[in-house]
Amino acid sequence: MTQEQEVKKAMQSSIDHFREELKNIRTSRANPALLDVVQIEVYGSKMKLRDIANITVPESRQLLITPFDPSNINSIAKGIDAANLNLQAVVDGHIIRINILTCHVRSHPGLLSSDDYVISGSHQEA
């Protein structure tokens, strides 16, 4: 592998990492990618949330989670709370609702610094 190919590979790795980090930046709009990092303890092992439930956006500021197996609903709610995403899962029968609060820089002073961290840290991951 030439040096040019190695540099291109490292740059692409940095870009891919940056794109993944951008998915986790919270805005006022609901995005199912916010829950990509959530791991749920079901059936004796940890599984990704998207593998055991359907995640939809019925409104611009709400996520709706419908488990494939309704008996897992409490495990899913606990897993979302344990993920430390500052999201509150509300069990509503056989579904889970997550309301996304509006974000304002004035009310969330750490928001800009965390975004700066994502941007500056992405080049160090490669």
Count of discrete domains: 1
Integer average pLDDT: 80
CATH third-level topology = Gyrase A, domain 2
Uncertain parts: 104-108
Q: Which CATH class?
A: Alpha Beta
Question: What share of residues is helical?
Answer: 25-40%
How many β-strands, per DSSP? 6
Note down, in words, how this protein is organized.
The protein has helices at residues 3-23, 49-52, 73-82, 110-121; strands at 39-42, 45-48, 53-59, 62-67, 89-92, 95-99. With 126 residues, it is of the alpha+beta class. Residues 104-108 have low confidence and may be disordered. It is elongated, with a radius of gyration of 17 Å. Strand 5 and strand 6 (95-99) form a beta hairpin. The protein has a single domain (3-121), classed as Gyrase A, domain 2 (2-Layer Sandwich), CATH 3.30.1360.40.
